[in-house]
Amino acid sequence: MASTHSCKSTEHGEAWIVKEDDEWHLNINHVATEQNLEENGYLEEESQTIDSVVLNVLYCPYCGERLSEGKDETIPSFTFHDFSKW
Fold this sequence. Notes:
By secondary structure, this protein is mainly beta. It has one domain (3-82). Helix content is 7%, strand content 37%. It contains one helix and five strands. It has one helix at residues 34-39, and strands at 3-5, 15-20, 23-31, 49-57, 78-82. Strands 1-2-3-4-5 form a five-stranded antiparallel β-sheet, with no helix packed on it. Strand 2 and strand 3 form a beta hairpin. It starts with a strand and ends with a strand.
């Protein structure tokens, strides 16, 4: 079962931190605004996800809380998904 970290900075945005397979991941979505819809014909509605990035983390970058107990280092990696075009 996945664990989730919550802090004040992640309450209202398109960012969340979740633990999966003993790794903590910061997930950030960039969502479409009215201006994005005007500039990109592939987007259909406001709040549609334009792109998404997932980074592995040891600490919350917003509140500083240590997330990985007993783990002092990690190999930096990320996943990026671009949904703005097909």
